[in-house]
Design a protein that fits this description.
3 helices; mainly alpha; two-stranded antiparallel ribbon
């Protein structure tokens, strides 16, 4: 069970509001949307990726204390790290290419058969 970021008491993982200090923990009353909150007198926009690349459309920008879209520019999200490239060459690579391009191979076969019929 996590702690409330304000009163540091144990709360339920799906709690929308802290039962102790009554602070809002989830955005729009939905337990699946986290609500990021600034600590002290800091603003979230100072550390946000969206503010840095000027794609933020949040009305409280650049003085937002709470935000549901906050993404810390100092942390690299896991989904942006591409998986390591694996080279599949040889017979296995050719089989995989054929599986991905069945339509192209079918068109190529029709063209070759048509060409052979035209020559005979």
């Amino acid at each position: 069970m996590p702690n409330c970021p304000h009163c540091h008491k144990l709360i339920d993982n799906q709690a929308v509001k802290c039962p102790h200090c009554l602070r809002t923990l989830k955005a729009y009353g939905h337990p699946g949307i986290p609500l990021y909150q600034a600590k002290g007198d800091d603003f979230l926009c100072d550390r946000c990726t969206y503010h840095e690349n000027d794609t933020c459309n949040f009305p409280q920008r650049p003085y937002a204390k709470t935000c549901s879209l906050f993404q810390d520019k100092n942390e690299i999200p896991a989904e942006l790290n591409p998986p390591p490239y694996r080279s599949s060459g040889g017979i296995l690579g050719f089989k995989l290419w054929c599986q991905r391009n069945k339509g192209l191979l079918l068109i190529l076969a029709v063209v070759i058969i048509s060409f052979l019929l035209a020559l005979s």
